[in-house]
Amino acid sequence: MSKLPNITTSIFTVMSKMAAEYNAINLSQGFPNFPVDEKLTDIVAQLAKEDVHQYTPMAGFPPLLNKIASLVQKSYNRTIQPETEILITAGATQGIYSSIQALVGSGDEVIILDPSYDSYEPNVLLSGGIPVRIPLNDDYTPNWDLIEKGCNDNTKMIVITNPHNPTGKILSMTDIERLESILAKFPKIILLSDEVYEYITFEQKHLSIHTRPALRNRAIITASFGKSFHITGWKIGYVVAPEHLMKEIKKVHQFLVFSVNSISQAAISQYLDYVSVEEISPFYQQKRDYFQKLLSNSRFELMPCEGTYFQVVSYKAISDENDVDFCKRLIIEHGVAAIPISTFYENGKDLRLIRFCFAKDNATLEEAARRLCAI
Question: Example GO molecular function term (predicted)?
Fold first, then answer.
């Protein structure tokens, strides 16, 4: 008997497989195709000859834990304790899984805001919890009245994603204040804030939960070195949580992976001495602006992109097809792979919007845009 009877192959796998079959340009799955910083690869090459190949402590490589504490202090002016409030994870997704498994029990309700990253619901189901999926407004702002109505004595957790995947939306100060107001009325609800794109924001920085004293003692925050340093294949992220929550998360982590790849932890620990996270946003903003310029003469309508490395576009002026069929035809007939937004909704809501990843080298973006502008 399946524990996830309604879960099928992810849309990312489907579209990437089709892209390979039809030799299409893959702008679907969110991974960069440009080289990693040479300084980081040099560090890895040197470390390969050193004694960093055995288990690290369960919570993480101590020097890296200290570096993360310093990074959070510098970025958000928050002091955290490396030994008790940080956990290195095998990607942010494992951190999310461990957090939900540790804190959500049978019959607990977890509010998820749609469109949503596709790992949230399966994690809740595997914990015995009940996913309560509440749609964002059509402009991808939260409907706080609907969210508040969804809260009750059985609500154990609310999951937010900021900056938001797949839409690139950033929560405003009004949004954060309304969230605080709701959680003040429901003091037992835990907040899980997925902030993996925290350093990929543009005209305005996102408002991290790290900066909200009213929420920090009941919030789990996930982050991703894979996203920040375009090393997605390393699968390395981290979780920050107050000690009383982290104790429970570590219990699951201990028996899930125990500890994370040692050489990657040592490499990132050294790399943080050389890299500035402040350089990440300008780099990706240049990518976003260039991709938007390339598509300016197409029939696609570009939606606002405030963060992440994804550009959502409307194809209403091109076709009346549903977004899944349109994306398949886009691959087969035009050689470009995208992701249909309806697959991020529980009810498959289709606004004829699709998502492109612009974390690609300029030559890839130029050829993709040439094909898209010809439609």
Answer: transaminase activity
pLDDT at 5 (0 to 100): 86
DSSP class of 210:
G
Query: For residue 312, which phi and psi values (nearest 5 degrees)?
Result: -90, 135
Residue 339's CB is within 10 A of a number of other CB atoms, namely: 27
Which amino acid does the sequence have at 138? D
**pTM check: above 0.70:** yes
Contacts of residue 199, Cβ cutoff 8 Å, sequence gap at least 6: 227, 228, 277, 280, 281
Task: Please choose, from the candidates 190, 195, 173, the residue with its C-alpha nearest in 3D space to the C-alpha of residue 110.
Answer: 190
How many separate domains does the chain show?
Answer: 2
Domain end (from 271, 293, 313): 271
User: What is the rounded distance in angstroms from the CA atom of residue 179 to the CA atom of residue 160?
Assistant: 10
300 and 215 together in one domain: no
Q: What is the C-alpha to C-alpha distance for residues 283 and 240, in angstroms, rounded to an integer?
A: 26
| Domain-embedded: residue 6 | no
Q: What is the pLDDT of residues 135-188, one digit of tens each?
A: 999 999 999 999 999 999 999 999 999 999 999 999 999 999 999 999 999 999
Strands (E), 34-103: 86-89
**Per-residue pLDDT, 30:** 82
Structural domain contains residue 5: no
What number of other Cβ atoms are within 10 A of residue 292's Cβ? 15
| 99-146 pLDDT tens trace | 999 999 999 999 999 999 989 999 999 999 999 999 999 999 999 999
Domain end position, chosen among 271, 292, 307: 271
Quick one: 12 exposed, middle or buried, by C-beta within 10 A (0-12, 13-18, 19+)?
middle
β-bridge partners, 240: 86, 221
Residues 193 and 294 both lie in one domain: no
For the domain that residue 178 is a member of, what is the CATH number?
3.40.640.10
Q: What is the mean pLDDT of the chain?
A: 95
224 forms beta bridges with 237
Q: Which string of DSSP letters, residue by residue, matches 335-366? A: -EE-EEGGGGSTT----SEEEEE--S-HHHHH
Structural domain including 318 reads 11-30+278-373
73 and 148 in one domain? yes
